[in-house]
Amino acid sequence: MTDPIDWRTLPKAELHLHLEGTLEPELAFALAERNGVTLPFADVDELRERFAFEDLQSFLDVYYACMVVLRTRDDFADLALAYLERAHVDGVRHVEAFFDPQVHAANGVPVDVVLDGLRAGFDEAERRWGITGGLILCFVRDLPVDSAAAVLEEVAPRAGELLGVGLDSAEVGYPPSLFQEVFARAAELGLRRVAHAGEEGPADYVWQALRLLGAERIDHGIRSVDDPELVRHLARERIPLTVCPLSNVRLRAVEDLRAHPLPALVEAGVVVTISSDDPAYFGGYVADNLAALAAAGIPDATLVDLAGHSIDASFASEARKAELHDELRAWRIARR
Ligand code: HPA
Ligand SMILES: [Zn+2]
To answer: Which residues are responsible for catalysis (predicted)?
Structure first.
């Protein structure tokens, strides 16, 4: 028998990661103190007690409450670099990360400040650890569509500093169709398009994200299993799903990992990738997600294949993808 795999050693890309969801309680309280901001939780322990979520909304309430500590360019740079250091330890070689500028704007922080800080963090991580990647601006689907359009126009002159746009936050009752025009404008600006769909919402929202928004990747997408025609479409067109197993369990989108639709999706030939979503809140970073899947009975060889999918499904250049595949090949050879 071969040794158990240390999933941190496996080269991989992380494609579904909310930077604000990497705000560990200790950093949240340190930033609150630095900025003279009061969090609605007494201390780190009380905040962690609030991590017993019942659904997506009960998580979002805590997640948005913590964001008030993020005020300055340095806060955003520190947040990004702290995550990227953990990602580096986790064997993440390429990251495509979300951020929610509408929420920061509501807190009085201009999108330019957010973007300057996050970009500084990414640039530093590339220098230190060779991690590549970039930023995906997410529209918050339960805020007015006008505010999504406004933030897009505000960043339009800096579109070249973004990889793309996404769609996140409370899903049910906020169908992708609401954002058709905003996504069309993003495409005009040369931005790639992804969208959260089929996390708590129905398979029809996945169809809408594909057909109305031009989404190239679906974030979560697990409810696609309810629609066999959709599963066949995803497989045939090689449309990747960025699946976040520990998130799905914590937010009760699935009962437990053994009931997760991932094996059915993989079996059907869908390009599944694994990510951590909001690792500070959901009990694990990406290697922890892989370890949890292995413990739940997913074969090691399947999980290694999914790391390969994460490279293919990324928006990295073809040259960078080839480099990452070389690293993965070397890893497989070293395991033999
Ligand atoms: O898991 C999520 N789903 C939707 N919106 C989010 N914003 C941060 N995390 C999430
Ligand atoms: Zn997400």
So the answer is: 199
pLDDT of 124-159, one tens digit each? 999 999 999 999 999 999 999 999 999 999 999 999
What whole-number distance in Å separates Cα of residue 244 and Cα of residue 140? Answer: 19
Q: Is 333 exposed, middle or buried (0-12, 13-18, 19+ CB in 10 A)?
A: exposed
Q: Whose CA is nearest to atom 5 of ligand 1?
A: 169
Distance of CA 36 to the CA centre of its chain: 29
| Whole-number Å distance between alpha carbons of 215 and 194 | 5
Segment 165-201, tens digit of pLDDT = 999 999 999 999 999 999 999 999 999 999 999 999 9
On the 0-12 / 13-18 / 19+ scale of CB atoms within 10 A, 27 is buried
Query: What is the complex's ipTM, to 2 decimals?
Result: 0.96
CATH architecture entry for 7-335: Alpha-Beta Barrel (3.20)
Catalytically annotated residue among 20, 96, 199, 200 = 199
pLDDT band, very low/low/confident/very high, at 1 (cuts 50, 70, 90): low
Q: Examine the residue annotation and report whether 24 is marked as an active-site residue of this protein.
A: no
